[in-house]
Structures are given as structure tokens and as C-alpha cells.
Design a protein that fits this description.
mainly beta; about 120 residues; 11 strands; four-stranded antiparallel sheet; single chain
């Protein structure tokens, strides 16, 4: 069965960096567009970044453009989110997702907290 496992979350100070990883298994990773979403307390889940299958030009939410970078390694079935210049408003649970046509898989999420 399809599985996505996020890692790399934690507590960082404003201006700091984190690198999230999402390891995929149980499906043909290279065929799926990959994305990162986040959900802050009391807010709706929002799209942060997406990268096409098997590779290509990423798209980002305006709030993270210039600070976050999504990338993928199809040989490792892993997608990454490099987060720089972090702000308190980036605090959220970050979810990895895989999408192909009508299929979408989700990871369990990893907490990112940006606080001084």
C-alpha cells in the first residue's frame, strides 16, 4: 500500500532553516506529482509547493516564494522541502502528498514551529 513518511520538522528560531523529507513507498513515485501542504492551528490546509512528475518547474505559494525550495529524487522516492528564512507564520503541520489523476496519497505530517 502507498505510504508517505515525513521527517525533519522541529523547533527553529525566526530566520533559521529546516529541511523536510518525505519518503514514499508502495507506488511508482516518478509517475506522481509531489507537493507539500501545511495546516496551522485554526486554519485550513494550504498548498505550499508542488513539483511535477517526473520532474520540472516547481510552483510555490506566494507566502513562501524565494524562501522555500521543493525538490525530488526519483531514485530515492523522496521529495524535499528546504525552508529558509523561516518566520513565525510558517508554524504549522507540514504534509507531503502524491497525486496522479484522481489518486492522492497523504503523509501523517510533521510539526514545524518557528519561535524565539
Amino acid at each position: 500500500q502507498a505510504r508517505l513518511v515525513e521527517s525533519g520538522g522541529g523547533l527553529v528560531q525566526p530566520g533559521g532553516s529546516l529541511r523536510l523529507s518525505c519518503a514514499a513507498s508502495g507506488f511508482t513515485f516518478s509517475m506522481y506529482a509531489m507537493s507539500w501542504h501545511r495546516q496551522a492551528p485554526g486554519k485550513e490546509r494550504e498548498l505550499v509547493a508542488t513539483i511535477p512528475s517526473p520532474s520540472g518547474n516547481p510552483n510555490y505559494a506566494d507566502s513562501v516564494k524565494g524562501r522555500f525550495t521543493i525538490s525530488r529524487d526519483n531514485a530515492k522516492s523522496t521529495v524535499y522541502l528546504q525552508m529558509n528564512s523561516l518566520k513565525p507564520e510558517d508554524t504549522a503541520v507540514y504534509y507531503c502528498s502524491a497525486n496522479l489523476r484522481n489518486l492522492r496519497y497523504w503523509g501523517q505530517g510533521t510539526q514545524v514551529t518557528v519561535s524565539s
